[in-house]
Amino acid sequence: MRDITSYSCLDSPFGPVFIAETMRGVCFVSLSKISEVEFQSLLRKRFRKDTIRDDRKLKDVIRELSSYFNGHQVNFKSTLDLSIGTEFQRRVWEKVGEIPYGELKSYKWIADEIGNPNGVRAVGNAVGRNPVPPIIPCHRVIRSDGNLGGFSSGIALKKWLLKLEK
What mean pLDDT is reported for the chain? Predict the structure, then answer.
């Protein structure tokens, strides 16, 4: 059986969202404004596998994301494939995944929770490399001083996602 990455796209209130899945689970969600060709290229570069569009295969995660983007609280059930991350990144992503809907936590809180209180900057880098937003809700992570910090898809989208959850 060929090792491929399947992908699909959904229309969200802020534009197209591309989703990719390996045989192990959802591996990548792009909230950035890119074309399908650019997304395919990004997948090939990141995962070094053939890509194929398969809307039917990703219908469940599309349904979850569509519901979320339409303002519903969603308990994401999709299996994730986070093998692209380092062990440290996966620990950070797991902790971020525990942040409840509508709540905010700081990078410092995450560093403390994973037993690396001096690793705030490393935590910030790992959060910024989250491959599956908002399934792993990195937009819920802010600076200790209350400022929003960064967001890989832009601060305007981070604000939009936080407002959606209010």
Answer: 94
Mean pLDDT of 29-51: 90
pLDDT at residue 2, as a whole number: 60
Confidence of residue 154 (pLDDT cuts 50, 70, 90): confident
23-47 mean pLDDT: 92
Question: Residue 36: which residues within 8 A CB-CB, separation 6 or more?
Answer: 9, 16, 18, 53
Domain 87-164 has CATH 1.10.10.10: yes
Q: How many CB atoms are located within 10 Å of the residue 135 CB?
A: 22
Neighbours of 142 (CB within 10 A): 17
Cβ atoms within 10 A of the Cβ of 47, count? 19
| Catalytic pick among 17, 19, 127, 138 | 138
> What is the residue whose two structure tokens read 């709540």?
103
Q: Which of 164, 160, 132 is nearest to 30 (CA)?
A: 132
The answer to whether 138 is a known catalytic residue is: yes
Q: What is the arithmetic mean of pLDDT over 113-131?
A: 96
In the chain the first and final C-alpha atoms are separated, in Å, by: 45
| Superfamily of 4-69 according to CATH | Methylated DNA-protein cysteine methyltransferase domain (3.30.160.70)
pTM of this prediction? 0.92
Domain boundaries, the chain: 4-69, 87-164
